[in-house]
Amino acid sequence: MRHPLFLCLAGAVALAGCQKSGDAEVAAALRDVNVVDETNLNDVMLTVADPNEAVAYFTRANANDPGRIDLMRGLAKSLVRATRPTEAVAAWKTVVAHENATYDDSVDLASAYIRNNQWENAEAALDAIPPTHETFERYRLEAMVADSNEEWANADSFYETAIGLTTRPAGVLNNWGFSKLTRGDYVGAERLFLDALRNDPTLFTAKNNLVLARGAQRNYDLPVVDMTQIERAQLLHTMALSAVKQGDVTIAKGLLREAIDTHPQHFEAAVRSLRALENNVTN
């Protein structure tokens, strides 16, 4: 009589074992789902969410699960997006100190230093990265640091290298052009701004810088590039201010009048500039 009882007990134990195994599998599956959901939420917070909301989210996440480098990076990136550079520097320094930090993290620390106007620290952070770590972002920042030191040959070399490492070079071409503009190489700057616009015809900063480069050469014709009516008015205003800087006041007033007439709404900045010129001439 003890055999059937033993078999029943063995069956019950086996069933319990199956139940525990099933529970473990379910729990593991839920963990996988939660990781996927969390990853998606993290991506949303880093891209389309309000920057300050993202900072609050990653601050809570770090407090609940300290030591996770992905959450630490999320907080640092969110602080950059929220235009909180001092806090961003501190956050990136914490990331770089983590045992699983990468050279890309050090590059991001250098970027945060630049945003906080700490150029010497940025240079030191970049110098600590081995030269074998060759990325677009690294060379883009190296070029900016070289510019700040007025090391023009190094800046040109870094800009050229950065351009070769990206399929979207418009921004760095614009930066390189602005570097040439500050050096007084207006012809070289104009060429680079045109290159930037060939890669991204919507980049208004390159259009505005192009007008500045032409104005510095006393060329007051707007460049032949794609522009909206509002952009045309704004560029005419920029050209007028450049003409004033060159001492060509009569030309400047004509450009300002054209800017006012071109703008589809009331162009207060151009009106003020024209009024100031006319009052100055009268006085």
From TrEMBL:
Cited Pfam families: TPR_16
Gene3D superfamilies to which the protein is assigned, alphabetical: Tetratricopeptide repeat domain (1.25.40.10)
Species for this entry: Marivivens donghaensis
Protein name (database record): Flp pilus assembly protein TadD, contains TPR repeats
Tree of life domain: Bacteria
